[in-house]
């Protein structure tokens, strides 16, 4: 029971962190049709900005200022890069963001170095919040849970219940009509891209000290974010939320299970070869999201709640 409860809590928190990342990517794709390969790089920038700002002002100022700076960087990328390539089609946009990811990584190495930086959990949240089954649970993880849920509600309310959200959605399907109503469609797209990057930056602020802040962090978590978006359904925030929790819980439970295939087959009354039986379940945890991706593409290419195709 202890393993189940803690694995469930950790899986939900990790899943919500994945959602914070994937929500920005989903927002950009659903509104603009751009699949941003550099999205995880903005997550990395959020962590590094928070580390640098927090070392001067403290964590709480960095929590608000770092995502804003990442959003400004995203707005500049859209205004001076992607906007010029939009007429060339999606292939040009993909290649641009693919190259941008490597450029950002090299800039990070030049500015902050090639090794991990000591971005730590703030002292105000570095204490056990409660004790369960004789083990203490960190307060910072619950803080991550609260921030993620608050972001989810704010994003849903903005898109579904406000005039701004209606204009953003209308700008995708009926840009000419929105322009005739007096709205600057290009500026709307720039702000949407900036908001998506800022969400990734926010994930970096609260996830950089939970995981690790180092130059390869974008390429470590980036592929999983694309798995979340595809499994959830391209353009669906609801699908991304479900897929994030599913993958987070699935990976966490796999890591916590101290068993091999030999044990698993034994429980089922079967036998396994020595090569297969010696494989441990935790060693397969990193591959589970991609196995889910393959199965989803085979049997339901649109994803769980797909709203848009490539």
**Gyration radius from CA atoms, angstroms:** 21 Å
Q: What oligomeric state is this?
A: single chain
Q: Tell me what the CATH architecture is.
A: Orthogonal Bundle
- The CATH class turns out to be Mainly Alpha
CATH topology: ABC transporter involved in vitamin B12 uptake, BtuC
Question: Sheet bearing the most strands, described?
Answer: 2 strands, antiparallel
Give the overall average pLDDT. Answer: 85
- Count helical runs: 13
Note down, in words, how this protein is organized.
This protein has 310 residues and is mainly alpha-helical. The chain has a single domain, classed as ABC transporter involved in vitamin B12 uptake, BtuC. 72% of the residues lie in helices and 3% in strands. The chain is built from 13 helices and two strands.
